[in-house]
């Protein structure tokens, strides 16, 4: 098995599906000869040619429209939005068109489109590059929203996303692109969408999270263990729909939970998880379910980024509040 | 310090005039039904000419009946089409069955003549999703509500056709207001960059709801917007079915020969309101202007042309009218007989596999709807 970074695992997933299915098309800004600004499509243009892997004019809305139109011709488009902060330019194609294709056509058409895009803080980008907008996506019925936290998951989840017959927003945290390597199997394997993973078992506290925060949560769990607290860490992997069974089973076991997201606190994924826990497991709870999240501002400029982003210390602090409630 | 007077590096006035002079209105049949451009006459048989007339007459009746059905509360959303028959139907008449139409919301007649059953058009109007459940082999998608979205999608459909090598085209429609949208430009530009077999039609009916075309752009014609995308554009008399047919047919030939997309502006007019949802055209149009355009009526001039050729008469006209009325009666009955759309139907159709929340909500609404 090869040791891969997340970005290599993503390229490997794209290559696997381009080989598997002649209807898979990869396109976007600079994804062709250049191999993408993060090299996610490195080598794909030369292996599969201009017909399968191609650059588009610089217009996100047009890229979205292209995906809609190509899917109507039976293709399985995998467009890249260069940075997810640019998603506002393509919101109509995503929420107004792709997510409604089945409904609007009474089931005649579907939109097997996977939109890949980098996002996430901690890498000192200019404005509109790092924002966590998964909550915005998750509010749209008809979309799935996937966020991997490891190279292994990234490949298996991306293959599943591409094979899914409905639109999937696949968000890749920039800080995780090259932060560590992991063994990633050659060839194809899938990880089901909508399934969380218990990353670490524990009995006192459930820490429910996703994306880059999974690694902060694991670090926090280690520290908490030193103080005698056993924390369970759940990586949602798919943030819409969430894996309600895994979440509720964990909370029923531990009786205490916190939900951690890199995004701003208002609305969003964590708020939904808290509400679902309250709906379904209130009698198992020994303490209120609290959130760890960024402040309710727009994403911070690089100078304030480090403090703005939640980290393992914030998780420990909030975790202890719940543990000692 | 006094500023230095510089000589202009280019002649702005001349540049614009040079662009505009390339976009003269293309016409074959004038308002009196006389051929003014013999060399451009399309190679259509008498039967084809009669069929195009039949479709225009039929669609005028469909428009009148749809308006009255809407007033009776028996139709939902409806955007009147009278005045635009040549623009709509002659452009569709120039297509092959395998070509794909991405309509705007006023472009229901084209999708009907491309094969969508009338009953489904009525269901679409009523907001029933079965209206968009296009039968197999009919190459259309339900009319687009978002102005301009169909333009970028048409670029995608056309690129897909190019990749499949099908020798077919994607055709899409918007109005004069639609050309102000970013997606209008992105659509024609993408299709141009990919040399995709697309035809983009701008039905310039002078008003975007109430806003006159002069307020949409400094461009003298909308066809000239093609220049910015590096594709050909043509302005056509949209009340002249023969000119519309020829322009679309030529665009189609270019497209399937690998020469890329074309932008076609049809100069037309909608006699009725924007939609039946309360728009009052007397607030923004004068009756003088209405009268001026009604003189250009596509049915009047085409009827005259065919009568002069001796291939159309009152009996054929009446037969067509009766056929339209009968078809509408049957189609409304079919629409009435279609079970109403339920919330559970809507839930079922959101995704291939329902997530946990929709599964739970399905049960809740099944219970509510059983009462």
UniProtKB/TrEMBL annotation, chain A:
The lineage of its organism: Bacteria, Bacillati, Bacillota, Bacilli, Bacillales. SMART domains: Transket_pyr. Keywords: Oxidoreductase, Thiamine pyrophosphate. Residues 4-179 form the Transketolase-like pyrimidine-binding domain. The keyword Oxidoreductase applies. The keyword Mitochondrion does not apply. Its cofactor is thiamine diphosphate. This is Alpha-ketoacid dehydrogenase subunit beta. SUPFAM superfamilies: Thiamin diphosphate-binding fold (THDP-binding), TK C-terminal domain-like. Signal peptide: none annotated.
Automatic annotation (TrEMBL), chain B:
InterPro entries: Alpha-ketoacid_DH_E1_comp, DH_E1, PdhA/BkdA, THDP-binding. Keywords: Oxidoreductase, Pyruvate, Thiamine pyrophosphate. It comes from the Bacteria. The keyword Ubl conjugation does not apply. Its cofactor is thiamine diphosphate. The keyword Oxidoreductase applies. It catalyses: N(6)-[(R)-lipoyl]-L-lysyl-[protein] + pyruvate + H(+) = N(6)-[(R)-S(8)-acetyldihydrolipoyl]-L-lysyl-[protein] + CO2. Its EC number is 1.2.4.1. Residues 53-343 form the Dehydrogenase E1 component domain. NCBIfam families: PDH_E1_alph_x (TIGR03181). The pyruvate dehydrogenase complex catalyzes the overall conversion of pyruvate to acetyl-CoA and CO(2). It contains multiple copies of three enzymatic components: pyruvate dehydrogenase (E1), dihydrolipoamide acetyltransferase (E2) and lipoamide dehydrogenase (E3). Heterodimer of an alpha and a beta chain. PANTHER family: 2-OXOISOVALERATE DEHYDROGENASE SUBUNIT ALPHA, MITOCHONDRIAL (PTHR43380:SF1). This is Pyruvate dehydrogenase E1 component subunit alpha. It comes from Cytobacillus citreus.
């Amino acid at each position: 098995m090869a040791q891969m970074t997340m970005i290599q695992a993503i390229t490997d997933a794209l290559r696997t599906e381009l080989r598997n299915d002649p209807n898979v098309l990869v396109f976007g800004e600079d994804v062709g000869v250049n191999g993408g600004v993060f090299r996610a499509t490195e080598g794909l243009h030369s292996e599969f040619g201009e017909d399968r892997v191609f650059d588009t004019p610089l217009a996100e809305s047009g890229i979205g429209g292209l995906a809609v139109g190509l899917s109507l011709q039976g293709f399985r488009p995998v467009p890249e939005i260069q940075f997810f902060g640019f998603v506002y330019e393509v919101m109509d194609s995503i929420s107004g068109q792709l997510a409604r294709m089945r409904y609007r056509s009474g089931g005649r058409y579907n939109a097997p489109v996977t939109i890949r895009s980098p996002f996430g803080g901690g890498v000192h980008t200019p404005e509109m590059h790092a924002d966590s907008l998964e909550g915005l996506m998750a509010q749209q019925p008809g979309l799935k929203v996937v966020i991997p936290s490891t190279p292994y998951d990234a490949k298996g989840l991306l293959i599943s996303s591409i094979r899914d017959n409905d639109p999937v927003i696949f968000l890749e945290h920039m800080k995780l692109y090259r932060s560590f390597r992991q063994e990633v199997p050659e060839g194809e394997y899938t990880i089901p969408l909508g399934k969380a993973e218990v990353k670490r078992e524990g009995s006192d506290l459930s820490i429910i999270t996703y994306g880059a925060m999974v690694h902060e949560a694991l670090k926090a769990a280690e520290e908490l263990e030193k103080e005698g607290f056993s924390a369970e860490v759940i990586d949602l992997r798919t943030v819409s729909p969430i894996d309600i069974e895994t979440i509720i089973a964990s909370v029923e076991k531990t009786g205490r939970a916190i939900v951690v997201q890199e995004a701003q606190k208002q609305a969003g994924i964590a708020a939904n998880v808290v509400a679902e826990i309250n709906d379904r497991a209130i009698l198992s709870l020994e303490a209120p379910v609290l959130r760890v999240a960024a402040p309710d501002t727009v994403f911070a400029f690089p100078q304030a980024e480090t403090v703005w982003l939640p980290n393992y210390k914030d998780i420990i602090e909030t975790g202890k509040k719940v543990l000692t409630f | 310090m006094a500023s230095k007077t510089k000589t202009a590096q280019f002649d702005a006035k001349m540049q614009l005039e040079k662009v505009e002079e390339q976009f003269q209105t293309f016409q074959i049949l004038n308002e009196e039904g006389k051929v003014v451009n013999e060399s451009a006459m399309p190679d259509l048989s008498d039967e084809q000419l009669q069929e195009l007339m039949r479709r225009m007459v039929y669609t005028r009746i469909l428009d009148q009946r749809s308006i009255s059905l809407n007033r009776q509360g028996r139709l939902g959303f409806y955007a009147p089409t009278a005045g635009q028959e040549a623009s709509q139907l002659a452009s569709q008449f120039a297509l092959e069955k395998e070509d794909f139409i991405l309509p705007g919301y006023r472009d229901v007649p084209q999708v009907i003549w491309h094969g969508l059953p009338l009953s489904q058009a009525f269901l679409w109007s009523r907001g029933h999703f079965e209206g968009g459940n296009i039968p197999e082999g009919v190459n259309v998608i339900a009319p687009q509500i978002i102005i301009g979205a169909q333009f970028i999608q048409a670029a995608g459909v056309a690129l897909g056709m190019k990749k499949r090598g099908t020798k077919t085209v994607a055709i899409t429609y918007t109005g004069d207001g639609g050309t102000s949208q970013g997606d209008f430009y992105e659509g024609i530009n993408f299709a141009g960059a990919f040399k995709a077999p697309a035809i983009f039609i701008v039905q310039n009916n002078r008003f975007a709801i109430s806003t006159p075309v002069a307020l949409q752009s400094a461009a003298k014609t909308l066809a000239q917007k093609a220049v910015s995308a590096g594709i050909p554009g043509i302005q056509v008399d949209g009340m002249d079915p023969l000119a519309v047919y020829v322009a679309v047919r030529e665009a189609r030939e270019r497209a399937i020969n690998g020469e890329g997309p074309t932008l076609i502006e049809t100069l037309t007019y909608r006699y009725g309101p924007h939609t039946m949802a309360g728009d009052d055209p007397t607030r923004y149009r004068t009756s003088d202007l209405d009268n001026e355009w009604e003189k250009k009526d596509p049915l009047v001039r085409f009827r005259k042309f065919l009568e002069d050729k001796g291939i159309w008469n009152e009996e054929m006209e009446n037969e067509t009218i009766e056929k339209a009325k009968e078809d509408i009666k049957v189609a409304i009955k079919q629409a009435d007989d279609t079970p109403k759309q339920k919330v559970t139907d809507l839930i079922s159709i959101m995704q291939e596999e329902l997530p946990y929340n929709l599964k739970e909500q399905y049960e809740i609404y099944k219970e509510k709807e059983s009462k």
